[in-house]
Request: fold
Amino acid sequence: SSLAHRGGPVMHGRIHLYLIFYGAWTAQQVAVVQDAARGMGNTPWMALTIPFVMYAIFRYIYLVEQRGEGGAPDETLLSDRPILLASAGYAVTAMGVMIAEHNGWIGPVNLLGGGL
Reply:
C-alpha cells in the first residue's frame, strides 16, 4: 500500500502510527482507539475535515499577527470562540465520517472519476 498525491506516490509500504497512552486503559478502550486509528487513513471522506483545520490555522495566524495575541498559545486557542467552533466542527465531522463508514453508510470514492 502507499499514499498518493496527484496520482503519484508519496510514501510506499506500511505507514506506521504510534500512539502513546498514559493511564489505566481497559483492553476494550485500547481496541476502540486502535480500530479508529486503523480506519482513519482508509477514506477520502476525511477530506471533509480540511476546511475546519485550515480555518483554525489561519484564524490563529490572524490572532497572532494582527491582534498581537499568542503570548500564551493555550489561552488564545481555548478562549477564541471561532477556533473552538472550528474544533467542534472538525470533531463532529471526523466522528460522523468514521461512524458512517463503519456502518456502511458511505463507501470508497473514486477521486479520479468523481468527487465527494
In short: The chain has four helices and two strands. The longest strand covers residues 8-12.
